[in-house]
Amino acid sequence: xxxxxxxxxxxxxxxxxxxxxxxxxxxxxxxxxxxxxxxxxxxxxxxxxxxxxxxxxxxxxxxxxxxxxxxxxxxxxxxxxxxxxxxxxxxxxxxxxxxxxxxxxxxxxxxxxxxxxxxxxxxxxxxxxxxxxxxxxxxxxxxxxxxx
Length: 148
What we know:
By secondary structure, this protein is an alpha/beta fold. It has one domain (3-146): 3-Layer(aba) Sandwich (Cobalt-precorrin-4 Transmethylase, domain 1).
């Protein structure tokens, strides 16, 4: 039976909506795949998000090495998604990203109910989809993109 990996973006959502969606989906570990786990949006900076997740009974893990490099974030903000995929694809080949992808594979295969978090609401415009694709290439995996 394939493992299930979920993803979620918090753009246009409140922390309560995100955490409620995670709880309803049975997520027990939120994996933050932002390079910079800071946000101008209340409740989504690393400490606040980790505390909110913990209060909801959900673990929190920040895998910074799976975040998008600055030039990829700029491409995404400008709507240049092919450029984002090129930049992030090259980043995924780095030793740091490969090590964190392997850590994530191990966690998913352990049976944890994992959800990747990033900012972008639409998974097709976010690097978290590429993380899920890279992980699916390593292990039998189904992906479910949640919308808060």
